[in-house]
Structure to design on (385 residues):
């Protein structure tokens, strides 16, 4: 048995990086995100996945407009599997989907029961069994909760283990996958990320899950894909679609991650919106290389320089890049300040905003950015600086 997972879709009418004004209910970016989600579902079907899971943050906010909900319904209903079979779809509640801790107070309600879609907003266990001789696969779901992960993880894993113990079909499933919405920490993350309540030490959750019979972990929430080896291997799946220039680059996004009860992990990457920051020199090298990428029309390039170069912009557009913008200023400090403000604006928390801002600042020696960030954080927390 095999499942396919994506994470952190963040479907929304994001305004930044659109080349044209929306003339319908979905703007350019929302349409591209929905297309990437449909392509991911189709990839899962082509690979004969027995189930498809969204590991949280299907939407960017808790109150999507009806056209966004309809786009999600259409994308998640895309494709038919063997003998026109449509694999079941589970959508895990993430922090961006959640409005409050009240039951049902989240963005996902209209999806539940639409076709094969099931919404998971509380601890839940499912057995996948084709009945044709394949090893059954047990799935344990842990949606987002606002309390620190360490405060509830062990008890909820016990709940899942007890429920799975009752799945006695053919002696019970040998493969158990933990599906959760939480960042997996390695210890090398920046402080503002490492100290978040919505993350957990990867080694800890691997040990706890392994002790309860789980064979693999797949997690959403953090946007960078990362693999953690061990007796219970864990995969931070990463964002299907990056949210903007706070998720720059082309690597590690668009992942459809598969787990097979016999062969383990595999993955494919789906084209979609990507966000690149570059200098004029880097942009010229890109033009010179003429290297094509799948989905180039969904790439968004921001060129940061001290002088405008309309020909460079036109060359990049002619090469097929969907969106090209210049950030021009002839004063280094002012350039850095504006870049810092843009990065801060794109952030989703105050800690992230501050970290982005400091990262872009021009800091005079002997000071360094790490010290500036530490002092600013202590000041905001009311500590002595």
């Amino acid at each position: 048995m095999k499942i396919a997972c994506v994470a952190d879709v963040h479907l929304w009418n994001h305004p930044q990086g659109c080349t044209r004004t929306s003339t319908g209910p979905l703007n350019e970016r929302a349409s591209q995100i929905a297309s990437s989600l449909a392509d991911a579902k189709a990839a899962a079907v082509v690979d004969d996945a027995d189930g498809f899971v969204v590991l949280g943050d299907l939407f960017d906010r808790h109150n999507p407009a009806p056209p966004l909900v309809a786009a999600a319904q259409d994308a998640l209903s895309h494709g038919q599997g063997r003998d026109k079979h449509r694999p079941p779809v589970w959508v895990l509640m993430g922090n961006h989907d959640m409005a409050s801790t009240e039951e049902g107070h989240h963005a996902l309600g209209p999806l539940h029961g639409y076709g094969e879609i099931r919404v998971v907003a509380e601890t839940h266990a499912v057995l996948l069994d084709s009945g044709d001789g394949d090893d059954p696969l047990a799935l344990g779901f842990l949606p987002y909760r606002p309390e620190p992960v360490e405060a509830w993880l062990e008890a909820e894993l016990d709940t899942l283990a007890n429920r799975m113990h009752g799945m006695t079909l053919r002696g019970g499933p040998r493969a158990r996958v933990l599906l959760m919405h939480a960042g997996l920490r390695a210890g090398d993350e920046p402080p503002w990320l490492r100290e978040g309540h919505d993350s957990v030490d990867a080694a800890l959750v691997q040990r706890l899950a392994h002790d309860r019979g789980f064979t693999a972990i797949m997690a959403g929430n953090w946007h960078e894909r990362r693999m953690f080896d061990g007796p219970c291997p864990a995969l931070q799946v990463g964002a299907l679609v990056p949210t903007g220039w706070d998720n720059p680059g082309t690597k590690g996004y668009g992942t459809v991650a598969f787990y097979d009860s016999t062969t383990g992990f595999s993955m494919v990457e789906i084209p979609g919106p990507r966000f690149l920051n570059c200098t004029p020199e880097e942009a010229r090298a890109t033009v010179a290389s003429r290297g094509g990428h799948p989905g180039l029309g969904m790439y968004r390039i921001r060129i940061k320089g001290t002088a405008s170069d309309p020909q460079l912009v036109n060359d990049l557009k002619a090469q097929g890049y969907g969106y090209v913008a210049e950030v021009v200023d002839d004063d280094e400090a002012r350039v850095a300040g504006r870049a810092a403000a843009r990065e801060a604006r794109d952030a989703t928390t105050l800690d992230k905003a501050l970290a982005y801002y400091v990262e872009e600042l021009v800091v005079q020696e002997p000071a360094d950015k790490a010290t500036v960030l530490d002092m600013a954080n202590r000041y905001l927390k009311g500590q002595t600086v």
